[in-house]
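Newbie here. two chains, one complex. Structure please?
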Amino acid sequence: MSHQPISPEITFVPEHGGTKRIWKTFWLLTVVTIVELGLGLAIYNIHEGPEPNANLVLFFKGLMCILTLAKAWYIVAVFMHLGDELRSFVLSVVVPLLLLVWFIIAFLWDGDSWKDMKNTNAGSIKTEVVAPAAIEKGAKD
Amino acid sequence: MAQGTIPVGTKWWSGGKSPYNVTYGKVMMWFFLISDAFTFSAFLISYGTIRFSANWWPDPNYVFNAFPFMGHANLPLAFVSLMTFILIFSSVTMVLAVHEGHKMNRKGVEKYMILTIIGGAAFLGCQAWEWTHMLTGYQDVLVDGKVESWATTISHNPLGPKVMHEGQLIATPGPELFGGFFFGITGFHGFHVFSGVVINIIIYIKTRLGHFDQRGHYEMVEKVGLYWHFVDLVWVFVFLCFYLI
């Protein structure tokens, strides 16, 4: 029994190749996740350590964000076969998501500004009011 | 590539053919997933906004450090990594089911659909355990100078900064919204997983009944596959925002 076209208007013929690409992607996702977990545990150990380095923690967190985007790329391109579609369709799916770029920047910026407003009583206090001191190490962020 | 058979210079928009060369059902599934992506993004970004506005936020390495049957062993990230690998693996079995569908191999589709359903159910079981652990894990909290026993719920957060009280370190109430965001977003994702498992079961039954063989194609498996991978995709971001960062 062979695969029949779904509609005469569509010339899409699915791939009959092997599963090598799927397994390759699986191992890639697994390795990236393990790296992310390694970074997570590194942050844990930095917080446990004598002098937590805030910039290093921030760098690791940024790295985890980039690795997550890479994972998302592979899931969408290979598992969801978006990479095999026509370019016009790929753009129709991806371009609307660019709205998220400003969505994220604007809201996180707003959150940070809100923190400043609370801590300085909307700018009327020059020295920051600091939250109760955290004794537990790594409690910040 | 699947599109390799198309002659160069094809005019997609001159009529007579589907301009995206994708069926209506698949296009609509993709557009639904875009809208769902915006919903999840809005949830996660609002969580980020609140977290950026807070002076203090619980460290996930200290919040999520339990593992079933391990008692009070301190195992940061262990259980959630298990959940992540379960979901990634069920995504692989789903894409293999789609692959078998392309080859019109009914037995293969059945096998991989069953594995995907088991993976989804296992993930839901893990999430149920984690929720139970948080909702029943009572901890001492110093509230207005008095020691109370709180679990993490949508209204109570015993995971605040620790202070000295009568010679002992004790937690104070943490940001109230922590539980709301955690249970809200993981719950919304968990409900997607649950719907995915139900839809996968329906497709499995239809495969067994031979409906797709009669139709001549397994496109339904592809469409639920898209939904299932999306659920995995969202988990990748939930995992980042709640457990890693």
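Moderator note: The radius of gyration of chain B is 23 Å. The beta strands of chain B are 139-143, 146-150, 162-165, 168-171. Thread marked as resolved.
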